[in-house]
Structures are given as C-alpha cells and as structure tokens.
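Much of our argument rests on the idea that a fold can be written as discrete symbols. This step matters because it turns folding into a mapping between discrete strings. The record that follows shows the chain in one-letter code together with its fold in token form.
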Amino acid sequence: MSADLLDRIAGIEPGSRLDALRHARPAAREHTQRARDVLLSPADERGFSRAERLAVASFVLGLHRGGPGRGIEALAAEYDDALRALDPELADAVATAADQARRPGPFGVYHEAGLAAESEPGERYVAAPDAGGRVAERLAAALSHAALLVLRPREASPEAIEELLDAAWTPAQIVTLSQLVSFLTYQARVAHALAVVVDDTPTLAQGGAR
C-alpha cells in the first residue's frame, strides 16, 4: 500500500495527536488508501486504462474546486499533476472540461412522484469529444456520467447507463467508474475536513505534539 495521501495533503506528521486519532480507526484510514490504490492503480486495469482513471479523477476534483479551504485544491492538484505527467494534452483537455462543467450543486429533477416537489432544475453538462482528439467519445461519456453523479444524482437512470454502454463501456467497467466517482467525492470531503482541522489548530498535526 502506498503512503497515506490524505495525511500528506493535510500536513499530518507522524507522532502528532491527529496522527494518533487517525490511528484510532486504522481500518478507515487503511481502507481509504487501499481504495485509492485499487481504483487508480490496479494490477489489472481490465480495459479501464490508468489515463482514463486519472482523467476522471482530475475532472471530478475539478468539479469540487472553488470552495473554502485548501484540502480539495491540494487533492485536485495531486490528480492533475499525475495526469499531466502521463499525458499533458489530455490534462489540458480535462481541465477545460471541468471548468465548463462546474456548477453549484447538487441539483436535478426527481422522477418519483412523491419527491417531485423537491426537484431543483439546473443547467446540465454533457461532455463532447475535444477537437484535439485527446477526449475520445468513450472518455467523453465517462465525464458526462461523472458530472451526472456529482452534480445531479437525482437524475441517475437506466438511460444514463445505456449511454455508457453505447460508448463501449462494459458493465464491469461502469461499476468501477461509479465506484471511482463515489470514492473521489468521499476523499474530497475527508481532505477538506482534515485540512480545516490542521489549519485551525496546527499543533494537532505536529510530530510529538501532546
């Protein structure tokens, strides 16, 4: 398992009180890092390439950018840098897509009659293959689906899955894509929370602090 990314982003030093608190729930800490390793750097990609995975990660964190605190921005930079090291042109295309897709959310229209009154219409984003050819139809479909899950989850539907199937995503890959988007959203929240705690009380993150 790789070194804990969230500790590094937040600035949590070994031996600090916050390090001890995170060790009090070792399973949560370990499984979060393992999930990242498995979803972003699997031993068997099963047709869902590392470049596609990093593109989705960079895009999803790009949707979360713009809020208060430094945690999400730092996490987004990690995925941006990893994608840029692999494919600079793809990184540029994904950054542009994220800028275009970013909306206040979540929003959307409920299909269930009993929830219709809680619907909140909003501007939808649908990715298109870029002119440079870095974002192909398959990846564009994945980014559109990621935007759906992050910004307007109320509108998730079987039709959305069909759009991925039509773009050559297999059922197993669609499951992994959905897991990746869900994990990234969770990771963004934890990164934000830990950074807020560290910035509010820096001594909690300092090695040997009591």
Notes: Residues 51-153+173-201 form one domain. The chain has nine helices and no strands.
